[in-house]
Structures are given as C-alpha cells and as structure tokens.
C-alpha cells in the first residue's frame, strides 16, 4: 500500500488508479469495513489524526478531484463526506524519499511522465498534508 505524500497530479494513469484503490482500502480499514492492513505503516498518519475517517475522506477527495480534472470516472460516492480537517504534517525527507521513488517508477513504467517531472526538485505535497522539516518518517519502510 502506498498512500503518496506527493500531490496526485504527479502520478501517471496507473499510479493514480492504484492510489485510488489503495486509499479506498485504507478508508475501509479506518471505518471498520475491512480487517486486513490495519497495522500497515502507511495508515499511521491517519490513525494518529484526531479524526482519522475525516482525514482519509479528505485525502480521497483530493485524489478524486485530480481524477475528475483528467476526465476519469472515479465513483464520487465512494469518497464519503469531505469536510475540512486539520492538515497532517509530512517531513521534507519523506517527500524527497517518495519523490525519488516515484521518479524511478515513472522512468520504468511511464517515460512520458518521467520526462515531464524529472527536473522538478521540490514537488508539492498532497493538499491535506503540510510540509515541515525533518528526515524520512519513522513509519516509512525504506527500501521496501
């Protein structure tokens, strides 16, 4: 499971669809509709949030917005109600780690997207995240 910290606009079509599915799975776990993945490290930041269900719905809402912008037909009803939430912090180190990870994926899977983004050094983070100083997050499985 990869719940990207970088803005969904950077993902290629395969990546955006995968993010949609994985975030829906995360939502199912957080709402008690699924049992698997309940201890997955990618869920840590949502589980730590004051309102985890609202946070994952807000996360999904931004993924859905990117899909709509691209003309995709993601089912809005699966997002749930999107309400304002306190933003979740993400470290610069985490963003840098994920950015390099994404660029490697794009170079292999989607060269056109790779060429579009490879020179960008400081990507935007997902809209519900707030950048702060720091190294890679403790919950990240580096090298996995």
Q: What's the arrangement of secondary structure elements?
A:
Blueprint: H1 13-30, H2 44-47, H3 52-70, E1 88-91, H4 92-109, H5 111-117, E2 129-132
Parallel strand pairs: 1-2
Helix pairs in contact: 1-3, 4-5
Report on this structure:
The chain is mainly α and 144 residues long. It has one domain. Helices cover 46% and strands 6% of the residues. The chain is built from five helices and two strands, in the order H-H-H-E-H-H-E. The chain has helices at residues 13-30, 44-47, 52-70, 92-109, 111-117, and strands at 88-91, 129-132. The protein has a two-stranded parallel sheet. Helix 1 (13-30) runs antiparallel to helix 3 and helix 4 (92-109) runs antiparallel to helix 5 (111-117). The radius of gyration is 15 Å and the shape is globular.
Q: What's the average pLDDT?
A: 92
Number of helices: 5
Find the structural class using helix and strand composition: mainly alpha
Stretches where pLDDT is under 50 for at least 5 consecutive residues are none
Series of H and E elements = HHHEHHE
Global outline: globular
The radius of gyration over CA amounts to: 15 Å
Terminal Cα span: 11 Å
How many beta-strand segments?
2
Q: How large a portion of the residues is in β-strands, by DSSP E? A: 5-15%
Q: Which strands sit side by side, in order, in the main sheet? A: 1-2
What percent of residues adopt helix (DSSP H or I)?
40-55%
Task: Specify the biggest β-sheet.
Answer: 2 strands, parallel
